[in-house]
Amino acid sequence: MDLVSSILTITIRAGTSLVIATIGEIMTERAGILNLGLEGIMMMGALSAFAAAFHTGSLAFALLAAAAVGAALAAVHAFLTVTMRANQVVSGLSITLFGSGLASFLGQRLGPAANNRRLVGLSGPRFGQVKIPFLGDLPVLRSVFDQDLVTYAVLLLIPLAWFYLYRTRAGLWLRSVGEDPQAADAMGIDVARTKYAYTIGGGLLVGLGGAHLSLAYTPGWAENITGGRGWIVIALVIFSMWNPARAIWGALLFGGINAVQFRLQAAGTDIPASFLNMLPYLATIAVLVLMTWWETLSKRVGAPASLGVAYMREEK
Amino acid sequence: MSDPQAGAGTRLVEMRGIRKSFPGVQASDDVCLSLDSGEVLALLGENGAGKSTLMNILAGLYHPDAGQILVRGRAARISSPRDAAALGIGMVHQNFMLVDSMSVAENVVLGMKGLPFVPDLRKVKAGIRELSERYNLRVDPEAYVWQLSVGEQQRVEILKLLYRRAEILILDEPTAVLTPQESAELNAVVRRMRSEGKAAIFITHKMEEVMTFSDRVMVLRRGKLVAERRTADTDPRELARLMVGREVLFCVDKRPFSPGDCVLELEGVRAEDERGLPALDGLDLRLRSGEILGIAGVAGNGQRELAEVITGLRPATAGRIRLKGRDVTNGSPLSLIRSGVGHVPQDRSSVGAVGDLSVAANLAMKGYRSRPVSVGPVLRPSRILELAKRLIAAFGIATPSPQTRVKFLSGGNVQKTILAREIGACTSLLVAVYPSRGLDVGATEAVRKELVAQRDAGRAVLLVSEDLEELAQVADTIAVLFEGRVMGTFPACEADPETLGLLMSGAKKEA
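Structure tokens for the assembled complex are given below, as produced in the milestone run.
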């Protein structure tokens, strides 16, 4: 019982950053923009959150910094792909490479003089667990109700994002832009503005996902702190079929694999650590294969029909 | 706000001196148009006459280069579909502006001004049902667009406009996708709207429709307004003449027509278009050596599919195709090339030529499997260059050098390049689809001369064209294609534009 609940605790904690980023990327892709810059944006989010927290001591300010940096990087992507109509894959990959490089560079510059200007190995403010009275004392369930504040916020974000996408006017506009920008345009929806808004908004959430890593999951700054989570999120978006309500399952699955691997390592198995570390990525490949196969079988699944395609009105 | 004096006609729209050009085309050339309430106006013209462009300007999708638009007497700036909607102008586009993965109700309110942040779709659906009943536009508001037939999708488009209280409806070739029964229903809907003081403009190239739908008709040709008539004062014959723009067609100098053996024979050929709809509907054709068979018809009546079925690019779902007596139905493109079939495709830039390759490479593209262009798997650049120089001189292709990439050539020279290659590979049959479309006079002349030269050399030529003058000049025989069927076949010298125009619009041949 204790083992289950401790695995569940780690699962949820590990899943939090994945869920935020997945929802962010779902919103972006619903507008028809594929943002492969997630890994770099998440990394920059983690770095700026930790640096801000360390220097100001304020967690709120740290979240703000991560959100702003995430939004700024995504704005670059939006400018390149919407205004300049650049190839979305190339632009996204550049942002990943740029973000990762910049984060690791700043990690060696933004620290205090005492630590040789490095951020590695420092500890700063972090989100602690906040137990919810009563619910947090129940067996098993306590692992859900004994989490940090960001995780609670994310648990609320899932139904909110779903409601926004499927039940509000703005959500309808958003979906139409990703599905058929020409129709949306003809119906008076500002396609470019929508794409900008959701690319930037999505990047903001991805940045926050990074912040959760350096402020709560593995507090502190370390090189390659995201460990490829940005890429996993790309797969999770497909796994959830662009529906925020399903984002939780994918994130929990991957968080779970993380947690089990964590436990196994702690228990000291014979399986080499690098093999265990590989598992989440292996699972990503498996999920992609399965989802693609399923998509071919059932023909109509969630991918926004105009995902990845630049839109231009007066083509003749 | 419905006009109590329906039909009395207060001026709703006035377009003055509208100009719009696209690279290489003057799509609207100083066009004036007016529309009164309670009126149905038909815009008649051939493809490329500028009908859709003009209406896209009124609907806010295109911006005119010059001109003025007045709506209800006041100057209007319509810079987006949203502005148009605010003025009560709505358009049903030829390719529907519907989001397939959304429900009818969601599509109806899409982009609508004043929709609450959390829309009450139940209310929307009730509103749609009410409108459905009032106008007899049957459609289930819960259904998803991808589940609907084309006719139903059009009803959704119209409901969308009615739901937004549009007063001015623009319908772009609305009957093109409808069955005759559905067309009649649409006519009833339009009449109903007219009786409520709304106005409609509908774009068409079918004379019959002008007669049944409209009160007034404006004829466009090459971007210009050429005539305006009250429908009651005109007839299909006059309209056909106005639309095509010529009274007289004449036969030009070429060797006397002496056809040889039958080269190409199509029997009951059927084929589908991309959407799986029938494009060729039991088509019969015979083409002899030394003959140019001109295929007349309004674009989209199966011309492209016909050419593709013959050249092996599109499967025939039924029927037989024989080349010199041999069954080649659904043969591969390679086997047809080897049988000496040349193809000048409709889409010269993406199907006919590879823009990023040199003129020389494009010219060698059909000969690369054999000598002298290649030896086994190895290409021989010097021979390719030699071949290219010869063809460039022979066909008068204006290119800086054989190494110039094709995408830098003008349309006429791209077409000459394709023609040079295809004629080189062609020993029995040449299929040419709109070969002179978009070319200037000189290039057009060169292309036509080349087609006649092929005929004089004893080959069979299938020429698809929408230019009746071209057909009269070049072709020996003219077959009119309508909705995937041949409506009639005549010797070119006997064909007059009115009969052709009527057949092209689907009217029965008068005995």
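Chain B has two domains: 11-244, 262-340+426-504. The longest strand of chain B covers residues 11-22. Further analysis is deferred to the final report.
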